[in-house]
Each structure stands twice: as C-alpha cells, then as structure tokens.
Write a structure and sequence with these properties.
four-stranded antiparallel β-sheet; 2 helices; five-stranded antiparallel β-sheet; 346 residues; mainly beta
Length: 346
C-alpha cells in the first residue's frame, strides 16, 4: 500500500499589493489549484509494481502533508494541527473521526504551509514548520514557532522546539547508520539566481541554522532588520549544498543495501525546481552518496526528463525508498503522477 497526500495550500488572502504579488508567484509555482484535502490509498494487489486499486483513504483534512504510522495509529500533519487516526492494515478507508494531538502554527497568510513529519524509532514525531515570510519582512512576531523542527511526544502531546533557524524544513528523515535526524531546507529568495543554496543537513537538538539573520552559516543577510550579531555567531553551517533555488522537498535514505553498487548507502532528494531563475534548476531526483553516516560525494542525477525546453512536464515532491521491493516511489505534482523506479531484475 502507498498513501498519497493530495493537497495544496489553504485559501490565501487576496487583499494588499504584497499578498497579490505573493499569490501570483505561488500560482506560477503551481499552487493555484484548491487543495483536495485527502489521503489516497494506492494498492498493488497482484504485485506487478502498478497500483490497481485507488480509494479515498482519509478525507476532510486541512492541507495535509506529513504522515507517519506508529503501531495502529496513523498521524497526519495538517497545516494547522497534528491529527491521529486509528489504522488497520488492509482497510481501504478510515471513517473514524480524528483526534487532535497539538495545534501547529498557521497564522494568516500562511506561507510555507507544508508540515513535513517523520517518526523516530522510539516513537517520537518530528515536524517541520516553515517560516511565514522570506526574511521576516512581515515582522518577527509572525514568525513565533516558525522556521523550526518540533519534537512531539504523541502519547501526551508534549512538544518542544528541537532546532530553529531553518527557513523551510520541508523534508525530514532518519539516517539509518547513525540514527541522526536529517532534513532538506529551502533557503531565502531575492538575492539573485545563485544565492542562497538549498541544503541537506543533519538537524541537531538545540541548533540554530541562521534564518533570517544569516545564511550558509554566518553570512549576514543585510536586508534583515533589526540585525542580531549574537544570533549570527550561533548559526551552524549546513552540511551539504544542493544548489540555489532547486526547491528540495523530499528526502529518503536507502536501507538494507539500497539498490546495491553506487546506490547502496545514501539519500534520494526530490527537487521540485526553481520558479525564479531564467536557467531552470532542479526538476529532478538526485542521489547523495553517504559513507559512515555522512555525505561522501557530489549529488548525482538519478531521475530526470521532467523538463522539455523551458517547460516543466513534471516536478518531483515526495520521495520514499521501499526497502521491501527495492524501489523508489516519487510523487510528481505537475502530472499528478506517482512514479516507481526499480532495477531491471530480468
């Protein structure tokens, strides 16, 4: 079974020149379609690698994005709340009402509305909440509990800020060898085509990664007011640059030897693609090799062909490695397709 979040941004305000410009840019980036607000079940009953059953598994959600299964409970990160639903393997629909665990920040306008989520081996949840602006231009009061990763105990609802200064931590995963939490982060705009690189980094407890005061460690962003040199001194440099404006949205590590060969240890990253560069960047899935729990080489193109001329035929979002069937599952939100990539075993 594969669960797919069919989602988009919540309704956006239309008043004000700044908001109208932001709406235009978001629509250009593919965010102009109303959210379906559901999770769809794809089931491959004859095990030929193609889904032959498609059902609306869970409906009535609010811009859902992150999902995590712990035991017999499915956790769903709506844009404004973490919800819990009873899960029974084999069912094709959840009809029970959800139980709210905690509220999540969703101030209007709710920019960076996705809420990535991953479960740790010991049953804690980690939820990424992006900033509500580019560089805090709407006032930092609006950024309270934003640009952070929360750690949540779903059993009692206790939450704390695990790490901060992450402009938009939109993909989270645990590296299997070290057990460390890693994430892909979308960095700030309007500094030109070649700044700032989106990145893949280990996310450490208590760490501050610079947003909005600095980028890529302690490079000060002079546009931010007020400046805070003390915060810049705290800023940690990320581990691995993916390229400017590639819009990395998903990350998934291989386990159990991956595909073997050059794809045995590392991470797949889904790059949604730039909307603000003349020369397009991203629009592909890349492979980042790891060794002993750390990146060990340059990113390699793994799945391409989503661009024809200057036109995007697809934009990868979520990526999930399936260790049972040795396959990579990729969600593409332009063609609204779920792709499956697997070695030819013939």
């Amino acid at each position: 079974d594969i669960l797919v979040a069919e989602t988009n941004s919540p309704p956006r305000p239309k008043d004000g020149i700044v908001q109208r410009v932001m709406n235009y840019l978001m629509d250009k980036a593919g965010a102009g379609v109303p959210s379906a607000n559901r999770i769809t079940l794809l089931r491959d009953t004859d095990k030929d690698g193609r889904a032959d059953t498609k059902t609306a598994f869970l409906t009535g959600l609010n811009s859902p994005y992150g999902m995590a299964l712990i035991g017999d409970t499915l956790y769903v990160a709506n844009t404004d709340a973490l919800m819990a639903f009873p899960y029974k393997e084999g069912d094709t629909r959840i009809s029970a009402a959800g139980r709210k665990i905690i509220d999540l920040p969703a101030q209007s306008p709710n920019q960076h509305w996705t809420r990535s989520m991953v479960a740790s081996p010991d049953g804690l949840l980690y939820i990424g909440v992006g900033s509500n602006s580019n560089i805090g231009e709407n006032g930092l009061e609006r950024e309270r509990n934003r640009a952070v990763v929360f750690e949540v105990n779903p059993r009692n609802g206790y939450k704390r800020v695990f790490a901060s200064g992450l402009r938009n931590p939109v993909g989270l995963a645990f590296e299997p060898k070290s057990g460390a939490l890693w994430g892909v982060v979308n960095e700030r705009d309007m500094l030109g085509a070649d700044l700032v690189p989106d990145y893949l980094t280990r996310i450490e407890f208590g760490a501050f990664y610079g947003w909005p005061y600095s980028y890529w460690g302690q490079n000060v962003d002079p546009r931010v007011r007020p400046q805070k040199p003390d915060m810049v001194r705290r800023a940690i440099r990320p581990d691995y640059a993916l390229g400017s404006h590639v819009a990395a949205l998903g990350v998934s590590f291989t386990t159990d030897g991956g595909f073997g060969g050059g794809f045995s240890e590392g991470a797949f990253v889904g790059e949604h693609g730039s909307w603000n560069r003349q020369d397009l960047a991203g629009y592909k899935v890349v492979w980042v090799p790891f060794s002993n729990g750390r990146p060990s080489g340059e990113p390699q193109d793994f799945l391409t062909g989503f661009i024809k001329g200057d036109h995007a035929r697809g934009r990868p979002v979520g990526v999930t490695y399936d260790p049972v069937h040795k396959a990579l599952i990729v969600a593409d939100d332009v063609s609204n397709t779920i792709w499956r990539v697997a070695p030819d075993r013939r």
